[in-house]
Amino acid sequence: MARFIFYDTHDYEVPFVHEWEKKTGNSVEMVTEALNDETVSRAKGFDGLTCMQTTSLGSEKVYATLEEYGIKQITVRMVGVDMVDLKAAAAHHLTVTHVPVYSPRAIAEMGVTQAMYLLRHIGEYNQRMDKADFSWPADLIADEIYTRTVGLIGTGNIGGATAQIYKALGARVIAFDVFENPALAPFVEFVDKETVLRESDIISLHTPLIPSTRNMIGAKEFEMMKPNAILINQARGGLVDTQALIDALDKKEIAGAGLDTLADETTYFGHEVSPADVPEDYKNLAARPNVVITPHVAFFTKTAVRNQVHIALNDALTIVNGGRVRNAIHGEF
Fold it and tell me: What are phi and psi of 270, to 5 degrees?
């Protein structure tokens, strides 16, 4: 029987961990702390570990300590691994794995939900109705989705699921990706990034956060967009220059934004904090009727959480038993 430590445990994961233990006969100790320099000592005596956090795993001490304990892997229960120092992990013979596919449909559905909310001006109507104004102003007349062009930047699993939903709704779907997936040909027309920015009424981001994609949507990109464009970001907050987004909304360079993530979210998304700790950029955006923000919960369905937990623990177990996994990270992610 193998023993695993399950860092950063959330209440909603607990039943699925117990389900996995019963199914496999292995043992999991769940702790609420994130993995870092102070908590890495808790991994002593375990065969493997898994974590789920957007904050850094810590200094090289974490990786060296895990190697000293005989642990061979770090399994992240999410897609992104930007919180992991991949070079330090490799130097200490630690295989890093993630869960690249747990429910692409869940995240795709949230992005489409936010886009439709904004396309139909629901935020503006809510604001007006709060003042007992139930009129139908000409500037809030909406478009129907089948008349719109949707542009995707990134067509991995989530981007692909997003493309299929929009196509089923009748929209024209265009996309940019450095690796064009021919399997998506029935759903998307591949174009260059500038065409996506210039021609799309809805622009949806589906790329990892790496040095080359940080702030990939900034002042220059907003200037290229249509004034009626809606930006949807369900991926990583760092893909968008937040101040440039605020400026673009102020100047009416774009019509709205749907955000499940913000660049500075790690201090408050996923937590209950004091109102005084909420940053000004969030307050600015959240006060706008043409912006909808959710606290990084696009993934948050029962199907997705079960898959995250089971896939992560299965991969950790496979590595502990000397096997190979297809979810290992190789090189820059």
Answer: 90, 0
What are 240-256's pLDDT values in tens digits? 999 999 999 999 999 99
For residue 150, give the DSSP letter. Answer: E
Q: Provide the 3-class DSSP secondary structure of residue 171.
A: coil
The alpha carbon of residue 122 and the mean position of all alpha carbons in its chain are separated, in whole angstroms, by 24
Whether the pTM exceeds 0.70: the reply is: yes
**SS3 of the chain: helix, strand, coil, percent, to 5:** 40, 15, 45
Asked if 206 and 155 count as a contact pair (C-beta separation under 8 A), the reply is yes
pLDDT digits (tens, 9 = 90+) for 280-310: 999 999 999 999 999 999 999 999 999 999 9
Residues forming the active site:
236, 265, 296
Q: What's the pLDDT tens digit per position in 221-231? A: 999 999 999 99
DSSP string across 28-93: EEE-SSPPSTTTGGGGTT-SEEEE--SS---SHHHHHHHHHTT--EEEESSS--TTS-HHHHHHTT
Q: What's the pLDDT tens digit per position in 163-191?
A: 999 999 999 999 999 999 999 999 999 99
Which residues does 264 contact at the CB level (< 8 Å), separation at least 6? 237, 242, 279, 281, 282
Rounded distance between C-alpha atoms, residue 86 and residue 293, angstroms: 31
Domains of the chain listed by start with CATH number: 3-102+302-320 (3.40.50.720), 104-293 (3.40.50.720)
Q: Alpha-carbon torsion 33, 38, 40, 43, what sign?
A: negative
Residue 333: per-residue pLDDT: 44
Rounded-to-integer distance, Cα 12 and Cα 115, Å: 27
Q: Is 3 helix (H, G, I), strand (E, B) or coil?
A: strand
Distance CA 221, CA 210 (A): 18
